[in-house]
Amino acid sequence: MRIPTPLTHPFDGVGRAAAHLVTGVLVQFGALLVMAVPWLDGGPTKASSCLLALAVMAGVLGAACPVLTRAQRARFRARLGVEIPVTGRPWSWRQVGYHLAAGPLIALGGALTLLLWAAAAAAATVYVWVWALPPETRSAQAGYAVQAAFLTAAGLAGLYGAAWLSRALARLDTRAATARLGPSRAEVLEQRVEEVAASRAGVVDAADAERRRIERDLHDGAQQRLVSMAVNLGLAKATLKDLPEEARQVIDEAHREAKEAIAELGNLVRGLHPAVLEDRGLDAALSGIAERTPLPVGLTVGLADRPAPTVEAVAYFVVSEALANVVKHARATRADVRVEQRGGILLVVVTDDGVGGADPTGGSGLAGLAKRVASVDGTFSISSPVGGPTVVTVELPCAL
Question: Could you say which of 57, 205, 255, 371 is the most buried, measured as most Cβ atoms within 10 Å of its Cβ?
């Protein structure tokens, strides 16, 4: 069985705790002087004057609260190595509560503990005091040796108790100050949410930048090589007339495969991050989607300013995937796309006159769209009754 440390090492770290109590008494004494300002010059004598003095005292404490709080945080940092987080407000009622109640009570306990230290130290060293007396005085005190032994034992017990009280009060003060001078649970959660949101925005931006890099590499590397190969195969078909028929068929097949690979790679590049979106904005990029869609698409885009690049990319992919779903599943004769800016919100609405019944859990890509929208803190909703129409509505923040 492990013996608790205070029993075997009663004085470990007690110096820091005692110094913490001393500085706490000094700070609280300063706070009491601040609150005593309205009561100087004899103090009020009437009830109305008392109420006025109390009001003034509350105002003085409110004004001095930030200074007292900084002093307490510095004390905990210097004496105990405890860092109390700074709140977003200069003062709060929680801090006032510490300075009015918890702090003074703990300081009072600290003052009594310091008196216990002094009395216990004096008792534990009684033999030193006795031997400092003249010999004739010691001889006149019969039985002083037995009394000094008891006092010494009591003094040692008092030192042990003072050490335990010092550390207990330091722990209690730390808990009270952390709970009252630091941020509340709501503020901690709010700060954590902001950190998570910033971290998520960084991840989204990094993923978007990586998609752009891959798009550039494919466009400038693999796609250019395929184009060069297709050109060479086309030249071979046009110039090498005396080749055997089997060889010409192989060249024709390779030429056709190269052109199909170029087209597929172009679609892949546009799916990663279309260059027109970065160069000319969302209106031009959506116009390209509408032109490539094999059914009539009405497009309306009204933007006062360009949204953030990541938001533009999400809006582009929402429209692209939604129209792809219309073509594959809706059996529609036309679709309409409306993109507009409402304050700080980018609204995207895709409507079709198909058969309806779209289910986000049915593997149609709608679940992936919802996740992509949620990645930038947007909202995704769909209305698709059986028989139609289907309306996909997305709201995205214009700035991250």
Answer: 255
> pTM of the entire structure?
0.48
Among 168-177, 270-279, 325-334, the least confident range: 270-279
Q: Determine phi and psi for 308, rounding to 5 degrees.
A: -60, 145
The Cα 195–Cα 191 span in angstroms is: 6
On average, the pLDDT of the chain sits at 78
User: What is the secondary structure of 17-63 as a DSSP string?
Assistant: HHHHHHHHHHHHHHHHHHHTGGG-TT---SHHHHHHHHHHHHHHHHH
Q: Measure the CA–CA gap between 166 and 176, rounded to whole angstroms.
A: 15
Give me the mean pLDDT over the 387-391 stretch: 87
Residue 251, C-beta contacts closer than 8 angstroms, at least 6 positions apart: 233, 236, 237, 240, 243
Please, are residues 313 and 273 in contact by the beta-carbon 8 Å criterion? Answer: yes
Average pLDDT in the 335-355 region? 91
Query: Quick one: tokens of 342?
Result: 């409402």
- Measure CA of the first residue to CA of the last residue in the chain; give whole Å: 56
**Encoded amino acid at 319, one letter:** V
State whether residue 329 is helix, strand or coil: helix
Task: Let me know: does 315 contact 307? Beta carbons within 8 Å.
Answer: yes
The token pair at 322 is 């939604």
| Helix, strand, coil percentages, rounded to 5, for the chain | 70, 10, 20
When mean pLDDT is compared across 90-104, 141-155, 348-362, the lowest value belongs to 141-155
Question: In this structure, is the dihedral angle defined by the CA atoms of residues 140, 143, 147 and 149, taken in order, positive or negative?
Answer: positive
Match 């006062």 to its residue by tokens.
Answer: 304
For residues 302-316, give the mean pLDDT.
85
Q: Is 133 helix (H, G, I), strand (E, B) or coil?
A: coil
211 compared with 5, residue with greater pLDDT: 211
Contact 348, 308 (CB under 8 A): no
Give the model's pLDDT for residue 374: 84
Question: Residue 101 has which token pair?
Answer: 């109640």
